[in-house]
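Fold it.
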Amino acid sequence: MSVFEIAMLICFGASWPLSIYKTWRVKTSQGKSLRFLLLIAVGYASGCLHKILNDPDPVLYLYAINGLMVLADLFLSLHYRLEERRA
């Protein structure tokens, strides 16, 4: 378990609730790149798989929590993008 890996995941993880809240509050997908969010989600999923297959330790939970927050932001962005297209 690396202290630096934990610090990185905590720092990245601190930004996702703010991003989710902003997306939910403004109810628009403007300024959001769905490709970027999907790429980040794939990165966190890869981190989870690495932890499961090669280096199981509690840091897996940080990867999973961050990945779930990215997916929440991605789904909100998709929802609002569809709403914008319908309007």
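Residues 13 and 65 are 8 Å apart (CA to CA).
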